[in-house]
UniProtKB/TrEMBL annotation:
GO biological process: lymph vessel development; regulation of sprouting angiogenesis
Residue ranges of the region described as Disordered: 19-40, 279-347
Top-level division of the source organism's lineage: Eukaryota
Pfam families with a match to the protein in the record: Vasohibin
Compositionally biased spans, kind Acidic residues: 23-36
Protein name: Vasohibin 1
InterPro entries noted in UniProt: VASH1 (IPR028131)
Feature: compositional bias, Basic and acidic residues: 319-333
Length: 347
């Protein structure tokens, strides 16, 4: 895999041909595969585990040749090279007892960034949102061993894994749906809360759409920070989905509650959005005091196996999606731009 992490973002746009885009957006989100189509550009998921099998490997290179502006030449240059430099393997961060929470979060984000964004068009780690937390943590361990480039959903799972030993930090999924030039884009980060302040960990093509330091007083402040970043790329933010706090027990059989609240931010006034986010913040605080299901015994954990080795996967969803009322449509100020028909700014 050396050299793959250097591929720049794919250009061009492949339009879907079957069914409505909106319907498939919801179907893919329910299956935990939000990014199978990224702004109209499809990409693949490696479902065979690691090492990558030959069929997936060859399919990845064919896809690179299709989506990259200089795909064919790049394909030949990298695969034909005999002197590719060795890619350094980042070290999982360690801390001194005196290291503060903000410093630990910055170290984790630095590690995630050093893995680099995966521009190949093939996601190396299969993330199924319906899996129990213990199975997702197995995948996170695999990420630290393999040190391959990742995308935003993988970064969320890795962020949970690397903050499990930080009981003073609460974690929750925070996902976004934006629109640009007729196409929808999905993105997700790991929201964090500690010491009365919010922040986020994550991975993105764009520097201001991933890490946020632990300095935002309210969830509203954090969401508005991302909204401003989206507007900077001429994207209109349509939806924000916020989950519940994630358990710190790496052996928990709970499923992550990915979308406790779904907010149509482009239809809510600023005051309505603030009230909804305050309500969600209260809901998250209430969950802290609730008992969690016991972890499986050691024998049961061993029998469950790694998700990369076992075919089993729970299909029951334990959380109910709650759609929140939408008020008057909010008008977002956008930067003036030239004619961008057919051009996609991917985030």
């Amino acid at each position: 895999v050396p050299g793959l992490c250097w591929l720049p973002g794919g250009g061009g746009m492949l339009r879907a041909t079957v069914g409505s885009v909106e319907e498939r957006d919801e179907e893919q989100e329910d299956e935990g595969e939000e990014e199978l189509r990224d702004g109209g550009v499809p990409f693949y998921v490696n479902r065979g585990g690691l090492p990558v099998d030959e069929e997936t490997w060859e399919r990845m290179w064919r896809h690179v040749a299709r989506i990259h502006p200089n795909g064919e030449a790049l394909w030949k240059e990298i695969r034909g090279a005999t002197d590719l430099p060795k890619i350094p393997v980042p070290s999982v961060p360690t801390y001194q007892p005196t290291t503060t929470i903000p410093q630990r979060l910055e170290a984790i984000q630095k590690y995630i960034r050093e893995l680099q964004y995966n521009h190949t068009g093939t996601q190396f780690f299969e993330i199924k949102k319906s899996r129990p937390l213990t199975a997702l943590m197995d995948i996170a361990k695999e990420m630290t061993r393999e040190a391959l480039p990742i995308k935003c959903l993988e970064a969320v799972i890795l962020g949970i894994y690397l903050t499990n030993n930080m009981p003073g930090v609460e974690r929750f999924p925070l996902s976004f749906k934006s629109q640009f030039s007729g196409n929808h884009f999905h993105h997700i980060v790991l929201g964090v809360h500690s010491g009365g302040r919010f922040g986020a960990l994550g991975m993105s093509r764009r520097e201001d759409l991933m890490f946020k330091p632990l300095e935002f007083r309210t969830l509203m402040d954090l969401v508005q920070e991302y909204d401003g970043a989206y507007r900077g790329y001429w994207h209109t933010l349509h939806k924000v989905k916020i989950g519940q706090y994630v358990s710190h027990d790496p052996h928990s059989v709970e499923q992550i509650e990915w979308k406790h609240s779904i907010l149509d931010v482009d239809k809510l006034t600023k005051e309505e959005l603030r009230k909804e986010l305050e309500r969600h913040t209260r809901d998250m605080r209430l969950k802290i005091g609730k008992p969690v299901p016991p972890s499986p015994t050691k024998d049961r954990r061993n029998s469950m196996g790694s998700p990369l080795r076992g075919p089993g996967s729970p299909i029951r969803r334990i959380s109910r999606v709650e759609r929140r009322p939408s008020g008057e449509k909010k008008v977002l100020e956008q930067k003036s731009s030239a004619d961008m028909n057919g051009y996609q700014i991917r985030v």
